[in-house]
Design brief:
Blueprint (H helix, E strand, L loop, with lengths): L1 E4 L2 E4 L8 H8 L18 E4 L2 E4 L12 E3 L12 H8 L9 H14 L5 H7 L10 H11 L4
Parallel strand pairs: 1-5
Antiparallel strand pairs: 1-2, 3-4, 3-5
Helix pairs in contact: 2-5, 3-5
Amino acid sequence: MSLRINGDRHTLAVDNRTSLLDLLREQLGLTGTKKGCDAGACGACTVLVDGRRVNGCLTLARRLDGAEVTTIEGLADGDELHPLQQAFIDHDAFQCGFCTPGQIVSGTACIAEGHTGSAAEVREWMSGNICRCGAYPKIVTAVQQAAGRR
């Protein structure tokens, strides 16, 4: 199968049972995407497939032949952080950092989808991403800043 991951084309042999998350982490060494619950409940494995948020742990890699996948590693432009990555730093929107990659990837989609009109709207559209440390207020502020609303 062939995938474009973070702008690079990869031709891969993939078992039918391999999740996108395991493909990214184990075969390609892209370990920024985290394995949290491995059941689709926490959002730590959130990546973009053709611009849409998906849980990597629930997505079979074989179903994505020809797709464009963006992980946390693909958001920065060289040494320049993505605006949401910078906003997370500016607002200290993480504590342990485990959920941070999924939060940032999901937040970039939230912004692209236009779901940043209010803090309540951001919270609703980011509700699939769990932060066990409770950094939600700062995460919402960071998403709004990156969207140009703060």
